Amino acid sequence: MPRLSEVDRHSALGVLQAGLPISEVFLRMNVNRTTIFRLRQRLHEKDTVSDRPRSGRPRCTTQRQDRNLVRNLMNNRFLSASSRQTRGRNNQRISANTVRRRLSTSGLRARRPYICPILTKRHRHQRTLWAQEHAAWDRIQWRSVVFSDKSRFCIEHANGRLRVWRRSGERYQADYVRNTTGGGGASLLMCCCTGSPGRVHTLLAGTCLDR
Which Gene3D superfamilies does this UniProt record tie to the protein (predicted)? Predict the structure, then answer.
């Protein structure tokens, strides 16, 4: 059953003082009957409905250490949380889960990086010019164009699942993109070409051995 918040506790006591029986109060608040009894007893004995102070487990890192953790992460965002040599209070090693929680508080999540070919400034400039030149093309002009794409599936080894620590909206920033090159063992290459309705739609499959 859910834990009553401070507002819900005062609301439960209010309907009790208004004359509503306890059997209806705990059903309305969706809590155990004992919770309402103890809540009323605490009010009579302590004159408050707030929780007693709890010591709790102390944080293993200070706020300064948390800031240093985030600052060090900015230097290499592709390191895993378990590989970070981070120390907490009394120079004790902190766990990877603690590192993830501290980074999560700063809005950082471990996500799969966006993978794209290596593009220089000249490449980006040429692609932008091409997009601007063809932005006003109509449907008739696009009928003479065929688009193609390909996907490569590794056979001998896995591509791996590298993670990068970044915030939301940073997926396509150059510092957090994983660049790739050709090669890497035996693989299956699948190509597809498509155009306007009635044009060529071809699916090609082959095995390429990149050694």
Answer: Ribonuclease H-like superfamily/Ribonuclease H
Residue 82 lies in a domain: yes
Domain span at residue 67 reads 63-107
Whether pTM > 0.70 for this model: the answer is no
pLDDT digits over 144-159, tens only?
888 888 877 776 555 5
Distance in angstroms (rounded) separating the CA atoms of residues 69 and 85: 10
DSSP string, 171-185: TT-GGG-EEE-S--E
Residue 139 CB-half CA count within 13 A:
2
Q: What's the maximum distance between 2 C-alpha atoms anywhere in the chain? A: 85
Contacts of 49-56 with C-beta under 8 Å, sequence gap 24+, read 49/6, 49/9, 49/10, 49/13, 50/6
Question: Is 183 a residue whose pLDDT tops 60?
Answer: no
Is the separation of the CB atoms in 148 and 193 below 8 Å? yes
